[in-house]
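Fold this: Response regulator transcription factor
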Amino acid sequence: MAAVGLATVAIMTTSEPSPIGVLIVDDDPLVRAGLTMMLGGAGDIRVVAEARDGTEVASLVDRHAPGVVLMDIRMPVMDGLSATEALRARPGAPEVIVLTTFDADDHVLCALRAGAAGFLLKDTPPHEIVAAVRQVAQGHPVLSPAVIRRLITRVADSGHDRRRARARERLVHLNDRERQVAVAVGQGRSNAEIAAVLHLGLPTVKTHVSSILTKLDLNNRVQIALLAHDAGLADEE
């Protein structure tokens, strides 16, 4: 009987990992319904709330504590860019994936600078959206190095000189090796590629990336890449 009791206790204390909570922010009810239905089919993801515009995001995040926010850009009252900036400025903020219909929308690039983990086109296949939510929930951007590079090269030229001066002032805080790693990230290289180019071990590269994020108060490697580009260093060999 004692053995049975212990087995019962063991079963009762074993629990499945909590599903990834997702907040959907979009002014189109059909888009919200479609995303909710699609994500609902994944056993490890749960849509915890929906918002019609950016003004509702803060209160819903406080109430439901989602791990990931799917954020539309073009919305009335408060757009997704403003909502992303406000949300990511808060401590312990959830990760944000920007939803857009344009892969070169300048607002998307601004959202990445504000701390969004990446973006998805609204016509992205369902299985890729599900995979992106899982990836972001684990702290990894949903942009591949190739996509990062393609986006960076299409940044609008307005305010170029001002951005370059600001970016270079920030990069002064890095040591020589960290600066080399930041430049390599800006070139769209993966950690393995950086390790090969700079003749470093992969764990060392990861340590340098973490140090860069901490020193520059950045959220992810997408922001490192954008900063390196703004500073005019992405084309360095």
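The chain has two domains: 16-142, 160-230. The CA atoms of residues 173 and 215 lie 7 Å apart.
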